[in-house]
């Protein structure tokens, strides 16, 4: 299968102005207030500059294809003096890092994970219920060992250091780079299993990016007419943002510098893996500006100068306050998602893939391989004040066997909130927490 989305999956939704909810006065007033704050001419200039730059970005991605996604060794990624590598990582906003966990170790952990599930099959739940792919488990032995592996900790510290924070001293910034080990789930996807629920999206909130004052200040340069000055790696305001200001289903409450997958099995493009748009600066600027413009009536949407300010509607394309930010070719045409949403390179057990918190990504809708495709969700998260508060509470939950705070309620149960009753400390084969390193336990919240 090609690395590009050669045909747009029929199960992925599209978003058009017809989706505008005329009764949503909040969104309409929010858009009007932002236009009034920054000014129509400033936003227009930012739009034209961004779309012009984006044309070059999308052309480059279409030319390079999967080569747009950097592939690095663990040693390259963790070298403190390799500025060329760090620049490539930051420019793409996504990358594969090989051999973070030794291949044989990761493969053995997958075998042990399957045994753990089988031994606790009466209590383990997941989604979808009839053919589970994503399990409601967060501290199985495999997850704890991979999450606290010393090479994971070193790598996450290095990834966190790609960010800056002008609100603190150099010593405080160094402390922020220490990783907290956010507890997330894992996936075992069977061959042939369809997965249409995770089309192109951006996590960490949707409407909150514009509605929350601190979150919006993260994108101040974009909205102020200088998208070229926008720094996607500045956490000065982002660390105080509230992505969850609107009630929603299970989602991360912490700032993840990078979301991450650690592979437990081999996975080639087309076998149910990750897809990304490998650009972070310009694609983000486009997503932030898109709600303020409407397409020309003559149908020539490619020319950004023909677009006009949309101050009349409350439509934020692909934005539903209870969901992630969603994208489609119809709602975000200048991204050319049919050509720029790429499958990540082939992964082997122990390899990892990472992507910026604002990156457009998706999960391949089909798995055309012959073997299960399994990954552990392990992000890189810095020790910001709010992150420390979260992980401090998590340690208490971990010791008690309770689900993490973000996953108290089971996912995939529709609009109904179903409280999880699983206690992972009481499961057969649970790993004693004192078997973990002191550094690993600290990352999980002990003594924080």
Would you write up a description of this structure?
- This protein is α+β, with helices and mostly antiparallel strands and 448 residues long.
- The chain has one domain (17-443): B-lactam Antibiotic, Isopenicillin N Synthase, Chain (Jelly Rolls), CATH 2.60.120.
- It is built from 15 helices and 15 strands.
- It has helices spanning 25-38, 40-64, 74-78, 83-92, 103-119, 141-147, 150-160, 170-176, 208-211, 213-218, 220-223, 281-289, 337-340, 385-400, 438-443, and strands at residues 71-73, 94-98, 126-127, 134-135, 186-189, 201-202, 258-263, 274-276, 293-294, 308-309, 325-326, 342-343, 352-356, 361-363, 373-377.
- The strands form 4 sheets. It has an 8-stranded mixed sheet.
- Helix 2 (40-64) packs across helix 12.
- It is globular, with a radius of gyration of 21 Å.
- The mean pLDDT is 94.
- Pfam families: Gig2-like (PF07350).
- This is DUF1479-domain-containing protein.
CATH topology: Jelly Rolls
The tally of structural domains comes to 1
How many beta-strand runs? Answer: 15
Largest sheet: 8 strands, mixed
Examine the secondary-structure arrangement and name the CATH architecture. Answer: Sandwich
Question: Quick one: CATH superfamily?
Answer: B-lactam Antibiotic, Isopenicillin N Synthase, Chain
| Gyration radius from CA atoms, angstroms | 21 Å
Helix-strand sequence:
HHEHHEHEEHHHEEHHHEEHEEEHEEEEHH
Tally of helical runs:
15
Strand order of the largest sheet: 1-2-13-7-15-5-4-3
- Span between N and C termini? 46 Å
Q: Could you name the CATH class? A: Mainly Beta
Structural class category: alpha+beta
